[in-house]
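Changelog note: in this version the structure field was regenerated for every chain. One regenerated record is shown below for reference.
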Amino acid sequence: MTVSIRKLATWVEETHNEAGRTISPPTRKSVAVAVIENPFAGRYVEDLTELMEIGAELGGLLGDKAVAALGVRPDEIESYGKAAMVGENGELEHAAAILHPKLGAPLRKAVESGAALVPSSKKRGGPGQDLDIPLGHKDAAYVRSHFDGVEVRLNDAPRPNEILVAVAVTDSGRPLPRVGGLTHEKAEGKDGLR
């Protein structure tokens, strides 16, 4: 692996009750995070290929960790998302280089499909700052019950020369969805939309 990882973290969020109603089975989200060294911190570099390759490595690593945290088969994952936060000596383009060109393919492999775009966010921040990871259905972007998000925060990351990279997956949509539209059960997953 070419990436220099300082820290990995994985956790699961379960919602058992919402609006006074029992959620059974609970809705579940998992997040896998890597805190890595930013090889281009503090300097302008035209060619960001190294960060793109790091994105490919992290897509598989974090995708596998997030799926394993839920304890389900990869094909049981229903939605996904990705996000990155660069420390103060980095650029937003560093986060984009990790997230966009190559992270998606290994993440899709980890969840055994993924016709829809992987929702993403990027920002600059410091230790303890929140990073929102948007979520969307992995095969059909029009499944409204899966428009969601999850927040990640590490008290000591990212440091100025680091990047915090996160992948989130779910085995369900939001608790108590009722805004209509295409359902998970009726999604075809052929065009990434329906």
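Spot check on this record: The first strand starts at residue 5 and ends at 18. The chain has a mean pLDDT of 96.
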